[in-house]
Design goal:
Helix content: 10-25%
Structural class: alpha+beta
Strand content: 35-45%
Strand order of the largest sheet: 1-16-15-14-13-12-11-10-9
Distance between the termini: 34 Å
Number of strands: 16
Shape: globular
Radius of gyration: 20 Å
Largest sheet: 9 strands, antiparallel
């Protein structure tokens, strides 16, 4: 479960790569930002908010952009919308010792304990009128469900404005940002398309919702828009042996080889009229830049 919560968000990549058959990643072995680091709007947004910060990578998200910054000897993720307006900034995996005493006191009073080897603390900054809001998100690795707690710096429980966390936080199970009607609609949509699926989590995203599933012992992410219409489903880390022969033939004929220890295969399903379309995304861990290849099931490159 914790791996599901820790995954680097790929929905933006899944949508972005539809327009490009081959993409390259930036120098730190992540997916290429397509020159977004040089976008003056991105630079201005980052420097206005955090003067002196270095932009390490920029990724598209369904609602805008995620700007990975290096500042104060640490990495932070700044999120902006499509108009380059600041949404929130996430300081991930901060030391437990840096959490305000009021928060740790409230956390302990609620009956919880923190294990630094398994649990995590993030600090979230977000615009709150003309000031900067802040809260701490504590993720506890528990069975059968992880626990996510949010505290204001004074130790009180953080309550989202207008029913939505600035960081588009968890809403299921145990979340409180959406009504049971929404959860029921998503559950029904999942069951209709994937009858054998088990829902492990539902998240609010900038574009709508993401349902994390287990299907035949495999993880999959099913994405919906704000109207609860299916957008696409991503089956991550598929076995290379599961690729259609036509895709393998095309892949090898282009001179590529697959290393199961470093490279990845994902299958993407999406609505194509009344049918279901699909394609395969092969991500190769290469230096100095990763390579992303997109193939249709018949082995042709996806445009």
């Amino acid at each position: 479960m914790k791996d599901l919560m820790k995954k680097i968000w790929k929905p933006g990549l899944a949508l972005m790569v539809l327009s490009a058959p081959v993409l390259f990643a930036c120098d730190d072995d992540d997916d290429n930002d397509g020159g977004l680091r040089n976008d003056p709007n991105i630079t201005q947004a980052a420097q206005t908010r955090y003067p002196g910060a270095q932009i390490r990578e920029v990724e598209r998200t369904p609602g805008g952009f995620e700007i990975q910054l290096w500042m104060n000897n640490g990495e932070v993720d700044m999120h902006v919308n499509a108009g380059y307006q600041w949404l929130y900034t996430e300081y991930e995996d901060i030391p437990w010792a840096s959490v305000p005493e009021a928060v740790t006191t409230a956390f302990s009073a609620d009956g919880f304990t923190f294990n630094p080897r398994e649990d995590d603390v993030d600090r979230i900054e977000f615009p709150e009128g003309n000031t900067t809001g802040m809260y701490y998100r504590i993720e506890l690795d528990r069975e059968p469900q992880d626990i996510v707690l949010r505290y204001n710096p004074d130790g009180t429980q953080y309550q989202p404005t207008q029913g939505q966390y600035p960081d588009y936080g968890d809403i299921y199970p145990g979340g409180n940002t959406q009504t049971g009607t929404t959860q029921q609609a998503i559950t029904e949509a999942v069951n209709a398309r994937y009858p054998d699926a088990r829902i492990t989590e539902i998240d609010r995203t900038a574009q709508g919702y993401e349902a994390e599933l287990i299907i035949n012992r495999m993880e999959a992410d099913m994405h919906f828009d704000a109207e609860l219409q299916w957008i696409f489903t991503e089956f991550e880390d598929m076995p290379y042996a599961s690729l259609p022969e036509a895709v393998v033939t095309a892949f090898t004929s282009e001179g590529y080889t697959f290393n199961a220890y470093e490279d990845d295969v994902d299958r993407i399903e999406y609505p194509e009229g009344n049918a279901t379309g699909e394609y395969y995304r092969i991500e190769l861990d290469r230096e100095p830049r990763d390579i992303v290849l997109l193939y249709n099931p018949d082995g042709s490159k996806r445009n």
